Amino acid sequence: MTDTEAACVFCRIVEGVEPSQTIHEDDHTIAFLNLAPATRGHTLVVPRAHHRDLADIPPDEAAHVMRATVEVSRRLAGALGARGVNLWHASGETAWQSVFHFHVHVVPRYTDTDLTPPWTEIEVPVESLRGLGAEIRRFRPAPRHLL
């Protein structure tokens, strides 16, 4: 385990040296209940290998995490009677990432009001997005471009 991994609480959970309530695991991922749950059953799905964020994780590893996320979402909804599920991911401190090991939050939803939306949706005319769309399409990131 590298110094970065040794300092990472999620790496310690993967290694089995930090306790967790694991609800799913496979060769590439592990999923465990969040210690600070937004709702009952709030679960984190993480790759076994340490990747800091979305810019750092290789696409094939991210695909493994998403497959596990689908499985965990189905398990939570069925076992807990959740009527919906929210997925949440944050990459970078500005985006509220607090543990710098790639992860996806799976948040079971039971009512329309058990969470507050993190933003307010205000629709704008599609024409006003033309310049922004062109700017994004022109950008070609370098491999593993940092966020």
UniProtKB/TrEMBL annotation:
| Start and end residues of each HIT domain | 9-117
Q: Which domain of life is it from?
A: Bacteria
| CDD domains hit by this protein | HINT_subgroup (cd01277)
The cross-references to InterPro entries, in alphabetical order and at most eight, read: HINT (IPR039384), Histidine_triad_CS (IPR019808), Histidine_triad_HIT (IPR001310), HIT-like (IPR011146), HIT-like_sf (IPR036265)
Motif stretch (Histidine triad motif): 101-105
Q: Which Pfam families match?
A: HIT
What is the protein name given in its UniProt record? Histidine triad (HIT) family protein
Q: What organism is listed for this UniProt entry?
A: Nonomuraea angiospora
